[in-house]
Batch of 2 targets.
Target 1
Amino acid sequence: MPAPAADATTALREKFPQATVRASLDHPAVNIPAADVSTVLKYLRDEAAFDMLVDVTAIDWAEGVSPRFTMVYHLLSTTYHTYLRVAADCVNDAEPSVPSVVSLWPGANWHERETYDMFGIKFEGHPDLRRILMWDGYPHFPLRKEFPLAGIETPLPDAEVSAETGANLIAAPMMGGPFVAAPGEINMTDAEPRAKDESWTEKREKPE
Amino acid sequence: MVTANSELAYNSKIEGEVIVTKADAVINWIRTSSMWPMPMGLACCAIELMGVGASRFDIARFGAEVMRFSPRQADCMIVAGTVTYKMAAAVRRIYDQMSSPKWVIAMGACASTGGMYRSYAVLQGVDRIIPVDVYVSGCPPRPEALLDALIKLQAKVKREPSAKNLLSA
């Protein structure tokens, strides 16, 4: 009989010594190497009763940080009603990639496509790795740290419509936009203490 | 002895089968009285659009109840919702497929300006790719607001020099 999450973490670390405990405020979490993602998740699904893949996402820790990209999987045990978070650092910072888990959970398909769309992380073995929210051929990955809040001007996806209307994809900064309560000199650190790293805006340079 | 005509309505027995009017008035009357909408429902505004079509608000009172899901048969595109850049090409293409004369109502904040979505993914107002006749504020607008927009559009159409436009086309 499989065990609940806390024991599952222990059992997992016994079976996979390369797994380490990850600091977490809510659910148990483990770090594993990116190469072992398929093996570990298959073990968790088949032998530790974590049968449901709730979420697949990624973290971009910023340019120049290594490892830069971390994959995050959230698992749920429908037997024990416990969650487990599995994180895996991508090895290559410039062209990150991890094994796909679509063969374990077909539901991971669109999650991985979204993660690829937003972060540019390649999923090896994914059956249909296309962008899902942005259009094919969009040149940027919008949730990467180097992508500015203000956006980047790009041509419209449809060249015909672009030629007809002269419209293009415009940068749409929040600063000075219609939904900023106090445009201009608002200090985000004072206004929102939780947004410590957002004291910079489009108008004020990011402090080094 | 001749008496004054007390008939309030047109009486063909007295007046004959002839009505005198202006071509503009007739054409615009035809156009405004059955303006078939092309529902371009892209987000939550489309739910309000359904409310407008249903019995409580009843857009049929204004002759616009026949929602056409084929652009060829529609007169007025109601852009109800967030237009993403990915969807923008499709919206423009459907607009191009509508036969003239055609009008556009931008329903809600997103269709009018991009709304709260100042982002890399959202077109900042549908008027960047298609000409908009009436903008409706609200997020989403009340059904009454859309009915008001339709009435305003009808008033606008009634002012058009349609006969001149047709002859010069």
Note: Chain A has five helices and seven strands.
Target 2
Amino acid sequence: MKELDHELTNALRREDPPAGFAERVLRRVGEPPHAEQTWGPPLGGPIRLKPDPTTVKATTAVKAPLPSAEMSGPPAPARLPFVQWAAAAALVAAMAGGINYVAMQKERAEGEAAGVRVALALHIAGNKLQLVQTKINQLHEQPDKNSNQ
Amino acid sequence: MGEPAPLPVIEAADEAPLDDFADIVRHQQGMVFSIALHFLRDRQAAEEIAQDVFLHLHQHLDLLKSPEHVVFWLRKVTTHRCIDFARRRKWSQVSLDDVPELPAATATGDPLLQRKLRQLVASLPETARAVVILRYQEDLTPTEIAEVLTMPVATVKSHLQRSLAMLREKVVRVIGDARV
């Protein structure tokens, strides 16, 4: 266990950031906050810089609540429209599919009802024809009986 | 580099000019960058997060009352940002085997084992990863980690035990138990 602790300590020891890191941070501190208006900060809440960071003290910094564990997502403003469009497209497609499905179901039901009606009509017509055939047969048989008598 | 570098003393909340901020950046950049680097295994993302953390610190410097408070704040904000960042990019997560290995920063120990350990630590769930990094990079106690991550001490200890057991098992499976 001690050996694993030791190896973890070695594996996770601190490393220096790339050269010029501090200078880049200080340069960003001095930059005008134009990026906030278009994209917002890459990570975390909005950054509001002091008017003149070389002279103004920290008391003039904009008061904002300390960041909590739940921080707002950074690239969200850039990704959000795409996500919204994708969600809207999916919703429209689902609605169109639903409408199409309902129309097909209705058409199929009407077709089946029409089929039932045709079958009923054919059945009735068949019965009538059978009845007529029976009558004709009876008429043919009666003259034969009369002539025999 | 293992021990936190001493901070310039901030006299009072309203006495924090940019020079002091620059000193804080220079003294604490290794800590902030390394937390992000070990968490994300991505130097570019780590630098971006570290820069944002310091920019955020610049806004809130007047609220921080002591150098210890500054260090605590930096650890807390960096860790939470890393957790958020890792959760957001999960959908595009690449295999750990595809991630380029960080340049070896250690002159002692077993480089192969340490490389594998960094890979395995990066594969832990976000909260457990943060616990392990704060424990072994920052040498914090479970109580201090619990304060940084705003969670019960028992939960921190549980994360540590489970993570170490998992790391040991995987290391033994991959490398053998001769060295752990």
Note: Chain A is about 65% helix and 0% strand.
